[in-house]
């Protein structure tokens, strides 16, 4: 049995040695759409970075010996699940591996946007040593106390639930939108329009799928408070980004923190934008490697876990 690890996925040397007890293992660090077919042509099991190499019908056609693959993420919007099933391939993801990491990133972005931390760092390095409360500079750096304010969490999966818990812990009043009722302490579920109208901070934590694509519309964004902040640690297809960028540039809302973006965000006003690093902690890496190893062992033993196909 041949196992191919296409890109680094948190697997330690000890875990790779465990996999070598199951068969031949090939490890790569730079697999992409140009070279995956050669590397996976005779692989029966694979660890796949589905951002660098989305699992499409073409991908599956070029990997005819593939019986099982584990992606190295929780989200699987870049896996053609129907084609995977049709090909008779079993697939797993890595659920829950970065719940705390991503939730803490959302809270970090909330603080960074509200308290103008990135702006303060930039201006200090440009020579602004202190902001005197008696000068016009004060207004540029003004935020608000988060204690007592309303945090609106869109999506109460593992990550959204953890964000709600942290919000409660720092003294915020937490409301949430979820498609199904979920009983969480000190979290009031409301409709999506009500959440956008009431929240001082909106945090988007939904998974991207056919039901949620485009769920954050121009109309919702326009109902937010002028003083409100929007934070997203979710996939980009959920939001009308043109409408959000316009709202930020004309100061219809106070600011945004975005962890997954593209070059169109470079010049948008009142934002803190990071290059998709919410998941990126040592603990998440450890969890990822462990779960992937468990996924492969479970498949080999005839009892696949964490299945997405």
Would you give an account of this structure?
α5 crosses α8 (158-169). It contains 12 helices and 12 strands. The strands form 2 sheets. The chain has a 7-stranded parallel β-sheet, with helices on both faces. Strands 2-1-3-4-5 form a 5-stranded parallel β-sheet, covered by helices on one side. The protein is elongated and about 70 Å long. The model has no long low-confidence stretch (mean pLDDT 96). β1, α1 (13-20) and β2 form a beta-alpha-beta unit. It has 309 residues and is of the alpha/beta class. The chain has helices at residues 13-20, 36-40, 57-61, 81-86, 99-114, 117-125, 137-140, 158-169, 192-198, 218-222, 241-249, 282-300, and strands spanning 2-5, 24-27, 45-48, 68-71, 90-92, 150-154, 173-177, 187-189, 201-204, 229-232, 255-258, 271-273.
What's the overall geometry?
elongated
Largest sheet composition: 7 strands, parallel
* Number of separate helices: 12
State the low-pLDDT regions, or none. Answer: none
Could you list some keywords that capture this structure?
single chain, 309 residues, alpha/beta, 7-stranded parallel beta sheet, 5-stranded parallel beta sheet, 12 helices, 12 strands, elongated
Helices and strands, with pairings:
Layout: E1 2-5, H1 13-20, E2 24-27, H2 36-40, E3 45-48, H3 57-61, E4 68-71, H4 81-86, E5 90-92, H5 99-114, H6 117-125, H7 137-140, E6 150-154, H8 158-169, E7 173-177, E8 187-189, H9 192-198, E9 201-204, H10 218-222, E10 229-232, H11 241-249, E11 255-258, E12 271-273, H12 282-300
Parallel strand pairs: 1-2, 1-3, 3-4, 4-5, 6-7, 6-9, 7-8, 9-10, 10-11, 11-12
């Amino acid at each position: 049995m041949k196992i191919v690890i296409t890109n680094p996925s948190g697997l330690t040397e000890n875990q790779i040695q465990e996999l070598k007890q199951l068969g031949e293992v090939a490890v790569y660090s730079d697999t992409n759409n140009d070279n995956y077919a050669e590397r996976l042509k005779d692989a029966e099991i694979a660890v796949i970075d589905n951002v660098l190499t989305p699992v499409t019908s073409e991908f599956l056609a070029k990997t005819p010996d593939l019986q099982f693959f584990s992606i190295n993420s929780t989200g699987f919007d870049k896996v053609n699940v129907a084609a995977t099933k049709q090909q008779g391939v079993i697939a797993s993801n890595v659920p829950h591996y970065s719940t705390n990491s991503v939730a803490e990133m959302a809270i970090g972005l909330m603080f960074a946007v509200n308290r103008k931390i990135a702006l303060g760092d930039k201006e200090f390095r440009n020579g602004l040593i202190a902001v005197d409360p008696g000068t016009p500079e004060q207004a540029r750096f003004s935020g608000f106390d988060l204690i007592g304010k309303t945090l609106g969490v869109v999506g109460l999966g593992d990550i959204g639930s953890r964000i709600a818990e942290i919000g409660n812990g720092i003294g915020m009043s937490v409301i949430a939108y979820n498609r199904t009722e979920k009983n969480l302490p000190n979290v009031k579920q409301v409709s999506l329009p009500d959440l956008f109208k009431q929240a001082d901070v909106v945090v988007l934590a939904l998974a991207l799928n056919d039901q949620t694509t485009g769920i954050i519309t121009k109309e919702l964004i326009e109902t937010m408070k002028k003083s409100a902040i929007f934070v997203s640690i979710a996939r980009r297809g959920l939001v009308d980004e043109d409408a959000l960028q316009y709202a930020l540039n004309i100061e219809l809302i106070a600011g945004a923190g975005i962890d997954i973006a593209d070059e169109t965000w470079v010049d948008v006003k009142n934002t803190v934008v990071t290059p998709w690093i919410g998941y990126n902690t040592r603990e998440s890496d450890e969890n990822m490697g462990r779960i992937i190893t468990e996924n492969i062992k479970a498949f080999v033993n005839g009892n696949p876990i964490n299945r997405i196909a």
